[in-house]
Specification:
Elements lengths: L1 H13 L5 H8 L12 H13 L17
């Protein structure tokens, strides 16, 4: 569902210039990881994923509940 949502947003923003071949290459670099911000084990799992993937640039979106600030 995450990949489809990103695709829909990209298509809407890029419009007619959206390239299916470029999208196929790009989507292979997308990962969605849901974790519990209060669980250190979840952070270890995230670190393991980050460490096994090549680093050509990374972007993180972290949605943190206000009660954890």
């Amino acid at each position: 569902a995450f990949i489809q949502k990103v695709k829909n947003i990209c298509k809407a923003q890029i419009g007619k210039a959206f390239d299916k071949t470029a999208w196929e290459r790009f989507k292979k670099r997308l990962y969605y990881v849901k974790l519990d911000a209060t669980s250190s084990a979840n952070y270890r799992e995230l670190a393991a994923l980050v460490n096994q993937k090549p680093c050509e640039g990374r972007m993180f979106y972290l949605a943190t509940p206000s009660e954890l600030f």
